[in-house]
Specification:
single chain, about 260 residues, Peroxisomal Thiolase, Chain A, domain 1, 10 helices
Length: about 260
């Protein structure tokens, strides 16, 4: 289940509406702005132009993102990802067998999964996804690495506020500082920690059931130096973060080339 449909949809809460509640809570608690959210869209649309498999392969300006139609305030058209037809496939095997399939295997060195209350009204807070925080902590523990060790990440940006919250939930910055990260260019392709070089769900597209493995595929390309124009130079450790619905479940995986 992705949301508490019997209660939340009865009150008119679509998925944009659910994430709009998170966005307004984040704005109230931390001063996050509509412009900061729009900058996520601008970044990911640019990255999408470098990905031949992206659904949306066109740049947008900050002005266009800010001026687009309101879907569920403060989320506008360009704050929302688009549902995409797509498929992805992975071969997962024991490290000793991996070299039978490829000369450049990527190792999954840490995984975490966690769940939370399905309804937003039962959550301890709306400014963070508890499931994502716990899943990230478990993945880091298993991998023996810290957030500062991650070179590239693919996160679940179903809405732009979700990407900002992911920065915080994964420990890339302190709570409430996600907006600062995007403003400072930290998560751009040439930044200190590129996030969603594929274009993310926002521009690459959101094929729902295939989304998580599509993220893993992008990290594989990055760690093996096959990401072409969107390649993050020197990337050795990658992370993928996937969320179910409005955050009732989340999974985080950490990868390394060798």
């Amino acid at each position: 289940m992705a949301s508490d449909m019997p209660f939340e949809q009865w009150h008119g809460l679509t998925f944009p509406g659910l994430y709009a509640l998170m966005a307004t809570a984040h704005m109230h608690e931390y001063g996050t702005t509509e412009e900061q959210m729009a900058r996520v869209a601008v970044k990911n649309h640019y990255n999408g132009t470098l990905n031949p498999k992206a659904h949306m392969q066109k740049e947008i300006t900050l002005e266009k993102a800010m001026g687009s139609k309101v879907i569920a305030w403060p989320l506008k058209l360009y704050d929302c990802s688009l549902i995409t037809d797509g498929a992805s496939c992975l071969i997962l095997t024991h490290p000793d067998l991996a070299k039978k399939f490829t000369d450049s295997p990527v190792h999954v060195i840490g995984s975490g999964q966690a769940s939370d209350a399905i309804g937003l009204y039962e959550r301890e807070k709306l400014t963070s996804l508890k499931a994502a925080r716990l899943a990230g902590q478990e993945a880091y523990r298993m991998a023996g690495v810290e957030p500062k060790d991650v070179d590239v990440a693919e996160v679940h940006d179903c809405f732009t506020i979700a990407e900002l919250m992911a920065y915080e939930d994964l420990g890339f910055c302190a709570p409430g500082k996600g907006g600062n990260m995007i403003e400072e260019g930290t998560t751009e392709l040439e930044g200190k920690l590129p996030v969603n070089p594929s274009g993310g769900l926002k521009a690459k597209g959101h094929p729902v059931g295939a989304t998580g493995t599509a993220q893993a595929y992008e990290i594989y390309l990055q760690l093996t130096g096959q990401a072409a124009k969107r390649q993050v130079e020197g990337a050795e450790i990658g992370l993928s973060h996937n969320v179910g619905g409005s955050g009732a479940t989340a999974s985080v995986h950490i990868y390394r080339m060798n």
